[in-house]
Structure formats: structure tokens, C-alpha cells
Amino acid sequence: YYYIHILVIVLKFGENVMKKCMESENQKLHHRMKRIIGQVQAVDRMIEEDVACEDVLSQINAAKSALHKAGQAILESHLKYCISESMENGDVEEIMKRFSKAMERFANMK
Question: Are 1 and 62 in contact, with CB atoms under 8 Å apart?
Fold first, then answer.
């Protein structure tokens, strides 16, 4: 359920904020998140169907890896769009805070 909560946060909360800074990447990211949701739903079905634990764990690992790659894509887009735009327009201290916050959140993904 941990991953489902992350997906909901990204798809619901982050959607409007992310559109501002990465419009061109948003469609790809949304498609990627839909695939991850499908993976997590498959894990749930596997548990219901009493599939072997090692197979369930393998699928969980695949979903976790896909979620991590989605985080990488968001971080790259943040640097490419949000940070570069801010550098053209503004306060270096604020830019560093935003970059640091994004890096910290990405680093905390396990």
C-alpha cells in the first residue's frame, strides 16, 4: 500500500505543479505511472491468488524499480525546466533551496 499512496500523491497532488515546469514530459510520465499502477495491481492479484512468495517479491521489485526510474525522470525534468527557468529569472538562494529539497526527496526514496 506504500507505493499506491506515492502514486496517488504524484498523480493527484503533483499534477498541476508539474505541468508548469515540465509540460513536454508530462504525457510520458503519466503513461509511465499508469504502467506502475498496473504492476502494483498485479501484485495485489498475485497475493489474492496465493502465488509463490518469491514471484510476488520479484514483481514488487520490478514496480519499485519502475517507481525509482519515474523519480529520476521527474528530477531530471525539475533540473531541466524548473531550475533552469528559475536561474533566468531569479533568486539564486531560492533556486538552491528548491534543488536541495528535490535532491533530498529523491535520495530518501528507497
Answer: no
Torsion of Cα atoms, 76 then 78 then 79 then 85, to 10°? 150
Strand runs labelled E in the chain: none
Which element (helix H / strand E) includes 41? helix 14-48
pLDDT in tens, 30-80: 899 999 999 999 999 999 999 999 999 999 999 999 999 998 888 888 777
Residue 51 vs residues 9, 44, 45, 65, 75: alpha-carbon distances, Å: 29, 10, 9, 21, 35
- CA distances to 1, 11, 22, 92, 109 from 16, rounded to whole Å, are 24, 9, 10, 24, 22
pTM of the complete model: 0.68
Residue 1 pLDDT > 50, yes or no? Answer: no
Residue 85 to residue 73: CA distance in whole angstroms: 17
